[in-house]
Design a protein that fits this description.
With 185 residues, the chain is α+β, with helices and mostly antiparallel strands. The chain is built from six helices and four strands. Strand 2 and strand 3 form a beta hairpin. Helix 1 runs antiparallel to helix 2.
Length: 185
């Protein structure tokens, strides 16, 4: 039985998207540039609001607000446009990164895992926790001690614009234990 996805007008969603075979190249400058361009192009035809986004070397997390049910189309476009801009990840490139004939036949390429994980955010507490999770992810994986030091995140820009609370400038292991501890049931 196929997984049933339900989308809600004006819904909030958390996503995790992973690279093919968890290869660590998402934070390379050309990949970041292609990803930003793909997101901007997708937003022109299928708008969504970005609440949080973090790009890690082998995966990314984000929180979106979407006004329709075309979420799979958005991810398909973002993935396809990013891959198309980076010929080394094309299904046609001669690299050994891809050796699965069904993957070649379906033209999935070598940049992304085929699917993605999503969660419909049901209330304000979940919304805050998923946004914090996005910001905290570089600390969790040991790339930085303070989340503000990670360059591939909405944290710095959204703090400067006032979208995130000022105390989020100090997201580290000890701070987060205190915050997440207050949300325990």
């Amino acid at each position: 039985m196929r997984r049933v996805r339900r989308y809600y007008e004006g819904g909030y969603y958390f996503f995790t998207v992973v690279t093919y075979k968890r290869q660590k190249f998402l934070t390379e400058p050309d990949v970041i540039q292609a990803l930003r361009h793909a997101i901007a192009e997708t937003m022109k035809t299928h708008p969504f609001e970005i609440e949080a986004w973090v790009v890690m070397p082998d995966h990314m997390h984000c929180v979106w607000i979407v006004d329709d049910d075309k979420i799979p189309l958005r991810w398909s476009k973002i993935k396809a446009l990013t891959t198309k801009a980076l010929s080394r990840f094309s299904h046609e490139s001669g690299s050994d990164l891809i050796n699965c004939s069904s993957r070649k036949r379906r033209k999935y390429g070598k940049l992304w895992q085929h699917s993605y994980w999503e969660h419909t955010i049901r209330n304000e507490t979940e919304h805050e926790l998923y946004m914090l999770y996005c910001c905290y992810n570089p600390v969790k994986h040991g790339y930085v001690e303070n989340a503000l030091d990670w360059p591939y995140s909405t944290l710095k820009r959204y703090l400067a614009s006032g979208k995130y609370p000022e105390e989020w400038a100090h997201i580290d292991v000890s701070w987060l234990d205190d915050v997440f501890g207050s949300h325990e049931r």
